[in-house]
Amino acid sequence: MPEKQPYKFIQHNIEVKLKADKRGQLAPYREERELKAIERSMINDTQELVSIFDNTTRASSHMLEGERLNETPFDAAIYLDKSARPVRKIVHGLWEEFSAGNEPQAYFLNIDKRPWLAEMGFIDGKDDINLEDIPADQVSIELMDPDYLRHALTRIRALYVESSDLISIEEQEDQVIDEQNKDIEKVWSLSTRLDGKTIAIVDEVKSSGNTLRIALQLLRAAVPEAKFEGLWWSDPGQIAWDIGSKDMQKAARYVPAWYSADTLDGRGVGDINERRSSLSPSKAQRIGRQILSAPLFDTETGTTVGAGKLTKQINSDIQTLVQRYKTGTLEDYLPDLDLADTHPDIFDQRLLQYYKTDTSEEALALRKSKLKK
Asked: Which terminus of the chain has a lower count of CB atoms within 10 Å, N or C?
């Protein structure tokens, strides 16, 4: 009898590979990933992110700049909706396993690169443009209409002003800043909860980096009193193949199981919906309606929902993965093999961190020789 599957959803994960067609040209095909590969990558990506957060790791392919820009650990992390939201759940669940430092305060922001690149003029009249091909040095919020940009930056800053400071800076203490008019401009004279802190902006999968660049530019302009750096949770690598044009087609080798264009469910929140957010009882949601995800909405009942069926399954799977790591029941767990060649000391430390029962040199050598095959 086959072993019972420990997960409800995350085992359904696809990897893109290349093989030669009849003409000898490489073409992509999709293949289901092994469960142990899924578990390993999720654990290893989380451990790498945690080690960056607490300043243990100073250089990594998971960093937009390749290395840390600031000397201190991160005080807070802004996870980019929607797909980085489950990442925070994994980080939180495994933090004490991987670090003795303080877990960064978590915030969420929805920075979808498409509308921002459209405001910069990259998309207008160009239906076939590949957003991943836009050169990094051309992506700049300075290309946007100044009034539109000022409006967006003001609302981003307002999200991080302490709610007690949203009282009008005039002497009438009962007058609250009105998000519907120019009174909101007063946030530029108020401090924010991010001032003086080092903040990570976290995207879920490494690609062109344009989403992170846009988020960094917006936040640095909205809260210049803080220090921001861009990070990816996962670096799956890319594959490329010839499509008979001047450009090569590229794709990430794999993306998280919850990364789907077919459904909003799975990550606990919906897309940006300015109309619904403008009617929210939450002042922050109304102010941030252009950069905050709206709650999931059930079109059949006409109500918002905290979590759909898929979201509940993924949350349950994350809890299961965390417990399987903590109890030492992952199948043939192995840290990132690249570390064995580039940073063998880190590889050994992470291997021993998991296999707590037998940490002898003989046991470590045996695991390496067995698992690397």
From this structure: N
